[in-house]
Structures are given as C-alpha cells and as structure tokens.
Amino acid sequence: MKLHYGDLTDSTCLVKLISQIQPDEIYNLGAMSHVKVSFDLAEYTADVDALGVLRILDAIRTCNLDKKTKFYQASTSELYGKVQEIPQSEKTPFYPRSPYGRYQTGAMFLVVLCLLVNYREAYGMFACNGILFNHESPRRGETFVTRKITRAVAKIHLGLQEHVELGNLDSKRDWGHAKDYVEAMWMMMQLDEPDDFVISTGETTSVRDFIELAFAEVGMEIVEGHCEGQPHILRPTEVDILLGDCSKAKKQLKWAPKYDIKMLVKEMVAEDVKLMKKDPEA
C-alpha cells in the first residue's frame, strides 16, 4: 500500500493524483463529519463535503477515466435530520439539522441528481451513493459519543475516572460496525450498474441504553454520578431518532450486518479497557 497526500479543496491536486494513480475505484470518505464541529466550521464543511465531491468527479473526467474509474460517495443518515418517516429509506425526504447534514445533502444531490442526469447518463460514469447510518469501531474518534462512552467506562472500571459528561441521553441511533459497512461499500462498487443504498442495521438504541450495555461489559451498573447530561454539549438543533431501512441493500446486494449492538459494544469496551491498562493517560 502506498499513501498519497491530497486535499478535497484543491482541484489541481486531485487531478494530479488521479492522473498519476489511474484508479479503478475511488471511495470518497473525506468529510468534515463531526456534527457539533460542523456548526462552528460551516463554510469549511460546505467546501469539503459538497464541492469536494464535484472536484473529484471533474478530476475523473479531466483525466479521461470516466469509463474506467468507479466512484463511491459516502453520504450520511444525518441527511434525514428531523425525520419525516420511520424507518428511513432511499425514498425518505431529507430534513438535515446540522451543517454536516445540510452539505452532505448537497453532495448527495450532486451525485444522485447531477450524476444521474449528466455523469451517469451523458458520460456513462459509474457513480453510486451509500447513505450510511452510524458505524462504529474501536478506532472511532475520541470525541464521538460511542467512543467517549467506551473510553469513560474503561477508565471508571479501572478507577481512573469518576464520571463522564454527555449531551442528550435520550437520542436514538441505528449503530452498526464499520467492518460491515465497508463491506457494503465494496459490494455497491461491484454491481454492473450504479445505484444508491441505505446501509443500516434496522435497529435503534438510545445513548442511555448504549451506556448501560457498556457498563454491563465490565460487570457494573450505572449509578448516580457516573453519567451526567450537560446542556452545553447539546447540539443547537437535535436529531431525536435515526433508524434505517436497508431492505434494498439486503435484496439487491445480498448484504446483511454481521454485528449487532451488543457485539459492537463488547468489542469497543474490551479494546478501550486494554488501551487504558496499557496507557492510563490515553
């Protein structure tokens, strides 16, 4: 594997890279994806999450690779925001409630609409979209709620920390494992014709229940003071529930998640306990 450096805000850089590498497949996972931070960096979020997609597509065409290179765009369940129906499918209307979700909607429309009409039909380019619901693993960033919880549980279990501050404990999400979702991305790119798919588990879990599952993995129950909901951590506009309908992916891709929420939490907690034992300051 060779690592190349690039920037979704730099068209020249993208053209140079794609021309040099001549890729068979491009998976665009680049985004400013932290919802809370996207409120503070709204302009940057738009530049990367929406215009970045267009820059890659134009670079593929500039390099005359539109018949060779397949393109995958990673979209997000944050598109649905204030949900219009439960569960959410490929046909559910979008109602984003954050700059991240809003500009991912821009990216989604660039691919689904512009590509459907122009890139897919006029240029014959293979371009597909994955609307991925929350996917986690032990490598999740420390500022995201799932990893924040599992790190805190590990530290509390080992006597390194007394409590953790979180936002809305009643928010519900459809959490899956990144391994399963990466497999789904690859399967989309192996189709004869490009299409767009919701990838999810079809089950929803509240933040509060995720915390309870995490503590159960270390043989503890939540007691008063372990977890504190803090108003300053809340988003300016909250998304109460996200629950995906992945029936299209199951039918057309023959894909199904292998991990359930308990398996996911078990793995994340175990890895963070191992990490904290090795490095209590981590």
Automatic annotation (TrEMBL):
Keywords, comma-separated and alphabetical: Lyase
EC number: 4.2.1.47
Keyword check for Lyase: yes
SUPFAM superfamilies named in the record: NAD(P)-binding Rossmann-fold domains
Pathway annotation: Nucleotide-sugar biosynthesis; GDP-L-fucose biosynthesis via de novo pathway; GDP-L-fucose from GDP-alpha-D-mannose: step 1/2
Domain named NAD(P)-binding: residues: 1-268
Entry-linked CDD domains: GDP_MD_SDR_e
Cofactor(s) needed for function: NADP(+)
EC top class, as a word: lyase
One term of GO molecular function: GDP-mannose 4,6-dehydratase activity
Single GO biological process annotation from the record: 'de novo' GDP-L-fucose biosynthetic process
Stored NCBIfam families: gmd
Protein family membership: Belongs to the NAD(P)-dependent epimerase/dehydratase family. GDP-mannose 4,6-dehydratase subfamily.
Official protein name in the record: GDP-mannose 4,6-dehydratase
